[in-house]
């Protein structure tokens, strides 16, 4: 299996977020984002984690923690510092930018990241 890297990784997350069009949130955590919501939504990092590698214990942990990153890599993302930086940047967009501004934020992020 070819591991996702760089622009292919970015495209997978971008396409997921723009299709979903809303944040994946944890109930009872005052707007905290979830890898997987009760409604089946997924965040930027959550969409990279295969069902067989997802654990509820990931929630409230950032994507760069060993626990979560191991699942992301096992799900098909190439294990590089650049990919971790990319996932963390995309996660920041999901968490901190209103969905109505995701397209613009994602485009700006990609121009800067891949420059």
Structure description:
This protein has 4 helices and no strands. With 115 residues, it is mainly alpha-helical. The chain is globular, with a radius of gyration of 13 Å. It starts with 5 loop residues before the first helix and ends with a helix. α1 (6-20) packs parallel to α3 (81-96) and α1 (6-20) runs antiparallel to α4 (102-113). The chain has one domain.
Question: Brief overview, please?
Answer:
By secondary structure, the protein is mainly α. It has one domain.
Counted by DSSP, the helix tally is 4
Q: CA-to-CA gap between the ends?
A: 28 Å
Low-confidence runs: none
Strand count, sense and closure of the main sheet?
A: none
- Measured by DSSP, the beta-strand proportion falls in under 5%
Could you say which structural class the secondary elements and strand pairing correspond to? mainly alpha
Radius of gyration from the alpha-carbon trace, in angstroms: 13 Å
- What is the element string, with H for helices and E for strands? HHHH
| Mean pLDDT across every amino acid position | 94
When the domains are counted, the total is 1
Q: Helix share of residues?
A: 40-55%
- The rough form would be described as globular
Number of DSSP E strands = 0
Describe the secondary structure blueprint for this structure.
Elements: H1 6-20, H2 66-74, H3 81-96, H4 102-113
Please describe the structure with a list of short key phrases separated by commas or semicolons.
115 residues; mainly alpha
């Amino acid at each position: 299996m070819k591991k996702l890297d760089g622009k292919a990784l970015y495209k997978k997350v971008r396409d997921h977020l723009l299709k979903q069009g809303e944040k994946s949130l944890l109930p009872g955590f005052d707007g905290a984002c979830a890898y997987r919501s009760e409604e089946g939504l997924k965040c930027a990092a959550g969409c990279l984690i295969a069902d067989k590698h997802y654990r509820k214990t990931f929630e409230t942990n950032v994507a760069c923690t060993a626990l979560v990153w191991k699942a992301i890599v096992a799900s098909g993302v190439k294990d590089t510092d650049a990919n971790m930086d990319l996932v963390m940047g995309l996660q920041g967009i999901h968490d901190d930018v209103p969905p109505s501004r995701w397209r613009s934020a994602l485009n700006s992020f990609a121009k800067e990241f891949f420059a």
